[in-house]
Design brief:
Helices cover 22% and strands 28% of the residues. It contains 6 helices and 18 strands. A hairpin with a 2-residue loop joins strand 7 and strand 8.
């Protein structure tokens, strides 16, 4: 056919195989893949969807069952508890990109195969970075549970992060005092300066440990740290002392790329700073990420001093509907002299935040609050 390159792949099964290879490669490169799953215990709850032209998906999770039940010889038929579900709508969109061959002309199967290999590798890297940027940005955006701790241990209300008197200043780094406040809120919830209750964060990881011959369930949270915060925590004397006290009985067996170490029931994971080249921990000088997320300047300290937005994440921190296998496309370009390859996938992600519809739902502790994320901005300068 005129204008068609004979080495462009058109076999649907081979295109499907390439699409599968591409998404597997993208998943392996992603920071969040080990934390994704379809249960309420995963940090990112996923749900496979077929793109049908509708960009909003409703996802749900089971609420608490806390009725009085019955006792004694009471009849269960006269007392039915309610199995309630918390729901939220997740916006998604098509992520797509394409690459064109650089050869003047694709004249053999081997040249076409080399381009196909390199383009799939490039597109998988792009897709992984794109999805991680969306996740980091949305998890960090306008958090409702923000830990602000100064070098002297003073816990400052989030509204005063840039305050002339109490705001964050040079030297207010991430320390074990910051981690202690994050863990306290995650385990117990907290009441903010306005008197609003914030829910505890469900732990992500549970391990069975044997302590004094007795099996115990030990629960863990993941705390993602920017490079400067990671450096400051590893120089913290309390953290170093804690490392000396870790034993097989109390040390987590969990591993993630970037793992720094464990402090109490927090697992610290170092991530690079957000940059044009790589997704990562955002900083307070970033105004927005395209039209996906904004509001990061709210984390700046006194006088606009730069901070890293460190994140504690627990179970169901985010909701992610997505197309399981992307579309992989090849076609001719330049009147058949060259070829292109493209990836096309429907992907949605939102930080979990349930908004009640009924008056009863609006009274729930989760209404309008981040469900599984706590942010801790920390200054980057000593």
């Amino acid at each position: 056919m005129a204008g068609q390159n004979p080495y462009v792949e058109r076999d649907p099964q081979k295109l499907l195989a390439s699409a599968t290879e591409l998404i597997i490669a993208a998943s392996k490169k992603s920071t969040f893949t080990p934390l994704c799953g379809n249960t309420n215990d995963d940090i990112i709850k996923t749900q496979q969807e077929k793109h049908s032209g509708v960009n909003t998906v409703e996802m749900s999770m089971r609420g608490l069952v806390r009725g009085t039940g019955v006792k004694g010889n009471s009849n269960l038929d006269s007392n039915r508890d309610d199995l309630e579900y918390l729901t939220m709508r997740v916006e998604g969109d098509v992520l797509a990109n394409s690459l064109e061959s650089k050869h003047q002309k694709i004249t053999s199967a081997s040249i076409a195969q080399n381009f196909r290999r390199d383009s799939k590798d490039g597109l998988s890297d792009w897709l992984s970075d794109r999805m991680d940027r969306i996740r980091f940005a949305k998890l960090s955006e306008k958090c409702t549970n923000i830990v602000v701790v100064k070098a002297n241990g003073q816990v400052v209300p989030a509204s005063k992060i840039a305050d002339a008197v109490d705001g964050l200043v040079k030297g207010d780094l991430f320390t074990t005092q910051t981690a202690d406040e994050m863990l306290s809120r995650a385990e117990n919830g907290y009441i903010d300066e306005n008197g609003d209750r914030h829910p505890p964060v469900r732990p992500y990881k549970t391990e069975v440990k044997v302590v004094n011959g007795i099996e115990q369930l030990v629960e863990y949270y993941i705390i993602y740290l920017g490079p400067e915060s990671a450096k400051s925590i590893t120089e913290d004397p309390v953290y170093l002392q804690w490392q000396d006290s870790l034993t097989k009985a109390n040390k987590s067996d969990f591993y993630l790329n970037g793992l720094i170490g464990q402090y109490k029931n927090a697992i610290f994971v170092k991530k690079n700073a957000w940059s044009p080249e790589f997704a990562g921990i955002l900083t307070s000088n970033i105004e927005s990420f395209e039209d996906y997320a904004n509001g990061f300047t709210q984390y700046s300290g006194k006088g606009g001093i730069l901070t890293e937005i460190n994140l504690l994440v627990g179970a169901t921190a985010g909701m992610q509907p997505f197309q399981g296998i992307p579309d992989y496309i090849e076609d001719s370009t330049d009147s058949g002299r060259k070829m292109m390859s493209a990836v096309d996938i429907w992907f949605g992600f939102e930080k979990t935040k349930f908004i009640g519809k009924t008056e009863a739902q609006k009274k729930l502790i989760w209404h309008g609050k981040d469900y599984g994320v706590i942010a801790a901005p920390a200054v980057m300068e000593k």
